[in-house]
Write a structure and sequence with these properties.
The protein is an alpha/beta fold and 209 residues long. The protein has a single domain, classed as 4-Layer Sandwich (Metallo-beta-lactamase, Chain A), CATH 3.60.15. The chain is 24% helix and 29% strand. It contains 7 helices and 14 strands. A 6-stranded mixed β-sheet has the order 1-2-3-4-5-6, covered by helices on one side. Strands 7-8-9-10-13-14 form a 6-stranded mixed β-sheet.
């Protein structure tokens, strides 16, 4: 299975391609600001994007959903608890001072424990609320795409609408710190890290061990 990171846009968002190298089927995770620029590269490498997956519905993670949906004729997976955020993209755009993107209604309701097929491979959905009510992670064989749940040396914001600090910390403790130290974590912004690194050194999590 291929996991590729594209760091794009003014907020250094990480957009991910997860693909089955044999079938060339793929999903795109969090096509945010500027990710439309990688469409040609994805096409040129022969990837067939079958689905867009959103870790959550904050504008900077979903702003190019429509561009990818149009380019590949695919649907969008989102946890229903973030549906109100998706429906309020015009309000979110006002926070950022940017034009509102076109909203594409999700076609797949993500749920904790769901397995999403990617060709002959798959990822597991982990519901991790706190940054937003419907925040989810996508787990592969030895890595997890964690969205804005946890970063290298930091944690996601809990002061945006729908966020809750105690819920965020509980999600990290129960769903991420419970994993093996060597599991790699790929956040929505910034560099990759590991469970062990964050367990040992993340100042927000030292009391969560």
């Amino acid at each position: 299975m291929t996991l590729r990171t594209y760091t794009v846009g003014p907020m250094d968002n990480n957009t991910f391609l997860i693909g089955d190298e044999r079938s060339r089927d793929a999903v795109i995770v969090d096509p945010g600001f500027g990710s439309e620029d990688v469409l040609d590269e994805i096409r040129s490498e022969g990837w067939a994007v079958r689905l867009i997956l959103n870790t959550h519905a904050h504008l900077d993670h979903v702003s190019e959903n429509a561009a990818f949906a149009d380019a590949f004729g695919c649907g969008i997976g989102l946890h229903p608890a973030d549906g109100p955020l998706m429906e309020a993209l015009s309000v979110q755009a006002g926070w950022f001072g940017v034009p509102a993107p076109r909203t594409v209604a999700p076609s797949l309701a993500l749920a904790d424990g769901m397995r999403v097929a990617i060709g002959g491979e798959s990822v597991d959905v982990i519901h991790t609320p706190g940054h937003s009510p419907g925040s989810v992670c996508f787990a592969g064989p030895d890595w997890v795409v964690v969205g804005d749940l946890v970063f290298a040396g930091g944690i996601g914001r809990a002061d945006l609408p729908g966020g809750d600090y105690d819920t965020l910390i509980s999600s990290i403790r129960s769903r991420i710190l419970s994993l093996d130290d060597g599991v790699r974590l790929f956040p929505g912004h910034g560099p990759a890290t590991t469970v062990g690194q964050e367990r040992r050194t993340n100042p927000f999590l030292l009391d969560a061990r």
